[in-house]
Amino acid sequence: MNRWRAVLLCGAFAAAGCGVKSASSFETLTLPTASGAKTVALGQCPTPKCLTVFVAPWCGYCRAASPMIRALREHLAKRNVTTRIVVGMDREDSVRGYAAEFGPDTLIDPKGSIHLSGVPHFFASSADGKVFKDVAGAPRAPEELSEAFLEAVAGHLGV
Fold first, then answer.
1. CB 44 within 8 A of CB 26
2. Which residues pair with 41 in a beta bridge?
3. Residue-range definition of the domain harbouring residue 124
4. How many domains does the chain have?
5. Phi and psi at residue 40, in whole multiples of 5°?
6. Helices (H), the chain
7. What are 69-81's pLDDT values in tens digits?
8. φ and ψ of 21, to 5 deg
9. From CA 121, how far away is CA 69, in angstroms rounded?
10. In contact, 133 and 158? CB cutoff 8 Å
11. Mean pLDDT, residues 75-92
């Protein structure tokens, strides 16, 4: 049963026009939080694995995936995986407005410091910032976000 769930999930990512490609590292990229309280170096992670999710205010797929991204962040926190959400690629007021939906620790990047093939975009990285999985797009999430669905998403993303 879990194998079929994973197959369907991978199909959902593919149907969203998403692909997996390689990336190396976030290196020295540092972004401020929406609250302005601190900056976060994406090249460092406080846990063995990090999931960094890039979204944009104008992206309908990002907006539709927002509840799933928030639920996935909570799910991964229980597994000692840090999730960083980066809102960018738009006017600062729009970026800050959308970032507020994810909380004050959301990172903002109005200038779009990382060139992406599309959003939403998920990067799984190690504690030292080396990216080991890069997935563009998000699956179509059911209305009820079950633990099994979130676990399947986490597995597909490598975290």
1. no
2. 30
3. 2-157
4. 1
5. -125, 130
6. 2-15, 60-77, 92-99, 147-157
7. 999 999 999 999 9
8. -140, 170
9. 11
10. yes
11. 97
CATH number at residue 143: 3.40.30.10
Give the torsion sign (CA, 52, 37, 31, 110): positive
Helix (H), strand (E) at residue 135: strand 131-136
For tokens 């769930």, name the residue.
5
Q: Which of 105, 98, 92 is nearest to 32 (CA)?
A: 105
Q: What are phi and psi of 109, to 5 degrees?
A: -150, 70
pTM listed for this prediction: 0.85
Write the CA distances from 148 to 2, 5, 70, 95, 152, integer angstroms: 8, 9, 16, 31, 6
Residue-wise pLDDT for 18-37, tens only, equals 333 334 567 778 999 999 99
Structural tokens at position 159: 């975290």
Beta-bridge partner residues of 83: 51
Q: Which residues contact 14 (CB under 8 A, 6 or more apart)?
A: none
Structure tokens at 3: 């194998």
What are the start-end ranges of the H helices in 24-146? 60-77, 92-99
